[in-house]
Amino acid sequence: MSINPHLGQPVCDVCGGEPAGDATFRSVLSLLIAWQVSTRMGNFCRDCGVAVHREMTKFTMVAGWWGFAVLGALVVILMNASAAARLERMPSPTERPGRPLVPGPPISRSPALIVPLLFLTLILVFCCGIPDF
Ligand SMILES: [Zn+2]
């Protein structure tokens, strides 16, 4: 965790920008009965926090549905969204000594969104059958 020595305020662990807030983001890899949770915690400025949120949530959206940890994947996606929402309320840093992370496209426009939608469709077809049109 980085602190500005002059002001005592937290600075971004990635780029050194201010303001920054502490946040924890997780990703889930689930395969049959095994799963792995990865955690990244620290102080993030708005831009770096959004980038970490998108990266870890997109990974979970692709890799979190293939085992018993599917509910864990849902919880992680909601927890990541909550942490990112807190960081998004902060202003973007005006000055930063380092290079910020590139946020990339929003999750709503990411190809990773196809995987959970396909997964949900398969569950509905399995449970309800193929609808007659
Ligand atoms: Zn940053």
How many H/I helices? 3
- Taking all Cα atoms into account, the compactness measure Rg is 18 Å
Count structural domains: 1
SSE class:
alpha+beta
Structure report:
Helices cover 39% and strands 22% of the residues. With 133 residues, it is an alpha+beta fold. The chain has one domain. The strands form 2 sheets. It has a 3-stranded mixed sheet. The protein has a two-stranded antiparallel sheet with strand order 1-2. The protein is elongated. The chain starts with a strand and ends in a 5-residue tail after the last helix. 31% of the residues are buried. The site of zinc ion (ZN) has 9 residues, from helix 1.
List keywords for this structure.
133 residues; 3-stranded mixed beta sheet; binds zinc ion; 39% helix; alpha+beta; 5 strands
Task: Detail the topology: elements first, then pairings.
Elements: E1 2-3, E2 10-11, E3 21-32, E4 34-44, H1 46-63, E5 66-67, H2 70-88, H3 114-128
The structure holds zinc ion (ZN).
